[in-house]
Amino acid sequence: MSKKLSMQQRYAALTRDLDWTPDYVDPAKVFPLTSFEGIKVHDWSAWSDPFRLTVDTYHKYQAEKDKRLYAVIDGFAQGQGHLSLSDAQYLNAMKLFIQGVTPLEYAAHRHFAQLARHFDGPGPRFAALCQSIDELRHTQTEVHTLSQYNKYYGGMHSNWKMFDRVWYLSVPKSYFEDAMSAGPFESLIAISFSFEYLLTNLLFVPFMSGASFNGDLPSMTFGFSAQSDESRHMTLGLEAIKFLLEQDEANVPIIQAWIDKWFWRGYRLVALIAQMIDYMLPKKVMSWKESFELYFEEQMLNGLFKDLEFYGIRPPMHVQQAIEEKEILSHQVAWTLYQFSFAAGFNTTVPDEEHQAWLREQYPDTFDKLFAPQWAKAKKIQEEGGRFFFQGLPQLCQVCQVPMLFTEVGDPETICQRQVVYEDERYDFCSDGCQWVFEREPEKYVQAWLPVHQIYQGVCGGPSVPEVLAWYGLQEGDSGEYIGSLDHKDWLAWHATAPVGS
Amino acid sequence: MEYELRQQVIEPRRHTFQHLIDRYGDKPASRYEEGSIDVQPTENFHYRPLWDPEHELYDETYSALRLDDPYTYRDPRQYYYATYVTARAGLHDAFGKTVDYLGQRDLLSRMPQEWQKLLGDLVLPLRHYESGGQLLSVNGARFAYGTTVEQCLTYAAFDRIGNAQMLSRVGITLGEGTAELLVSAKKSWIENPALQGLRRLIEELLVEQDWAVQTIGLDLADRMLYPLLYQHLDEAALLGGAGAYSLVGQHFGTWFTDHRRWLDALITAWLNDPVHADNNRRELDAIVARWLPQAQAAVADLADAVDALVDAGAKDAVARSTAELTATLTGAGLTVGGKA
């Protein structure tokens, strides 16, 4: 008689033991995607399950979590909870979230379905299957959480269409499509490791912390509710990289190059978050600089990468530039969005005195010297009844698709511009990092759907700004200056009859 | 009597998202609608997939079966994530109670020998069939066009691994906490002639490129396999003194009834599409012509082995369910075996 199963053996029996090697068809045809990237896996059974969750416990936990979350959402909506937010301006952050982050959850849902089909090993396949369905959860709970704000405020009503069309949203869209269109191993490093592990505290968490500081109880509850899912996704990312590094030494340089690429791609994506943390939250959580120092320099560079040294992995290329930029990044991006918000799905305004005092305190070396004068100039124009908007459309980086707003390292007053000629066409880049990414795979990045190029080609609703904005699905009040906007006027009117918190 | 609670009344600017207003008018939408309709990206893709440069990342032509507007299709169960996991938490909770009860009272090992053998040699190996079903379904979760369709396939994929785990737990319980029966069941899946038809079917479907072919091919087999194992044999088990089999089988029967609802609705949507109906009909005819005979033969092989153990009239039952399935398909307007 054999021995009773231990918990670990029982888990293996319920998951990876379901696998068998096909012989009525060629097994290589069943799993055709795992050979072309040059990654060598000798033993899929060496995959150590990053978490152990059977289907029955999964359903039980998740159903309980959702029951609690939806109770909060319903209660908040019934009590007109939106009136007790710190300020209507806070919702600009959540507009960015539902436009630019929620669609990434959906992309992850679809993408992990592909990984759940295509890895040869049943261990990672099951982990990917769980992540795929989790990401669908996040897509839908985020929509349901923000649905109540959509009824009373602008900018959220057409989030899916905007994700496909609007210029600054091509930053997250192209980022994720870059990963989805790559092979299964690269995309695993891109999303599970770089996005979910390396950058998640800079990318996802700031929104949820912002929610908790600004009275957004439903989003905060969503954040807590997603935490146990996210921790599974993070452990998957860590297991994935260790597993691939341990399988074969020849994998190391391939993975190093992916870490280099996906750090830089992800870092440019979080530029949008940097400005959100510093400029969009009425009640501040922490500055971008502080967040970068804690979550990236301390936890990743001095923590994770020390562990990865053992495998021959070094910190990502171009990381020094990111460190140099921490004093200026959020301000440069916020200033750009201020000038182009006539074509955005959120409102911007000049930070008020109290806000500027906080920025000064957080950025003693750069704010007064470089950025306060810009805001003073903008404020003066507003006081004289005008509003400073950039006339025209920004030039976008061919790789990250952020407007070319970044400056040379060590020279924060000179815009960085890099150019490459490829097959007789000129391509522009915001940085050495993006140029390097392009040069590895020019045939991929020349395909990019650059929103500004597309506008000039006349395929975005028409040649004029109003036509483009209509094609974006933007409605009255969604864009431009916050002071005097529809959201601002409504907020004042609602609170004229009912003071905040009553 | 009711008391009067005063609330601040604020007229909303809109009642739901604009894409739902465009479709259904400005009225409150359900959570199913807000979480499903128009969610998938449809345009302005940046890069062609390295693994399939002929297609966009989301592309209607991943399948020969098309819907002009994928959101004319809606899951009749209206499952979104929260309602789905809640429904399945109930299913697995009930199943867990059954298995615990069977284990406490040794009811599985007190079944007649031939029923134990049937369960161990012929039903338990189908956990691998379910696992294959998961791979087939999750491919559709990635490549189907439109969130309402792929969402059903996502839940189906997760259901399949759930079913595989339910069967495995039966095996562990019958094996008194050991993996012994799971090991022999896997051997049976690989070697037992009675199961090779099903294994070949799954493996051949796995190398099909079109997710709809995979989905319907699996469904055709399911529609003979599930009635055999969990309706016909359920009755036979009660008559044969194997009530424990029936206690297990009820949960799979419950699942299958729920599962098939979205598939029937999808087939109906394909056959009634304003643009693609004729083409869809031809494609479905071709899928049925290609896969139904193979699926029928595979389930019949299993039925022969069942009859050899318990003489339950399984072969006749398969013949009847094949006839019923054929009638249903022709009733829907398909041509089966030359008959419309």
The termini of chain B sit apart by: 62 Å
Radius of gyration of chain A: 24 Å
Question: Which series of helices and strands of chain B comes N to C?
Answer: HHHHHHHHHHHH
SS elements, strand count of chain A = 4
Question: What does the largest sheet of chain B look like?
Answer: none
Enumerate the strands of the largest sheet of chain A in spatial order, edge to edge or round the barrel.
Answer: 1-2
Describe this structure in words.
The complex is a heterodimer of chains A (502) and B (340). With 502 residues, chain A is mainly alpha-helical. Chain A has a single domain, classed as Ribonucleotide Reductase, subunit A (Orthogonal Bundle), CATH 1.10.620. In chain A, 61% of the residues lie in helices and 3% in strands. Chain A has 24 helices and 4 strands. In chain A, strands 1-2 form a two-stranded antiparallel ribbon. In chain A, strands 3-4 form a two-stranded antiparallel sheet. In chain A, β1 (407-408) and β2 form a beta hairpin. In chain A, 51% of the residues are buried. Chain B has one domain (77-331): Ribonucleotide Reductase, subunit A, CATH 1.10.620.20. The mean pLDDT of chain B is 96. The chains are: A mainly alpha (502), B mainly alpha (340). Chains A and B meet through α1, α3, α5, α6 and α7 of A and α1, α2, α3, α5 and α6 of B.
In short:
The complex is a heterodimer of chains A (502) and B (340). Chain A is built from 24 helices and 4 strands.
Q: What is the strand and helix layout of this fold?
A:
The complex is a heterodimer of chains A (502) and B (340).
Chain A: H1 7-14, H2 27-30, H3 55-78, H4 91-100, H5 102-118, H6 122-150, H7 159-165, H8 170-180, H9 184-198, H10 200-203, H11 205-213, H12 217-247, H13 251-269, H14 271-280, H15 288-308, H16 319-325, H17 329-340, H18 353-362, H19 367-383, E1 407-408, E2 411-415, E3 418-422, E4 425-429, H20 432-440, H21 442-445, H22 451-456, H23 465-472, H24 486-497
Antiparallel strand pairs in A: 1-2, 3-4
Chain B: H1 18-24, H2 31-36, H3 81-104, H4 113-123, H5 126-143, H6 147-174, H7 180-191, H8 193-206, H9 211-239, H10 243-271, H11 277-310, H12 314-331
Helix pairs in contact in B: 3-6, 3-10, 4-7, 4-11, 5-6, 5-8, 5-9, 6-10, 7-8, 8-9, 8-11, 9-10, 9-11, 9-12, 11-12
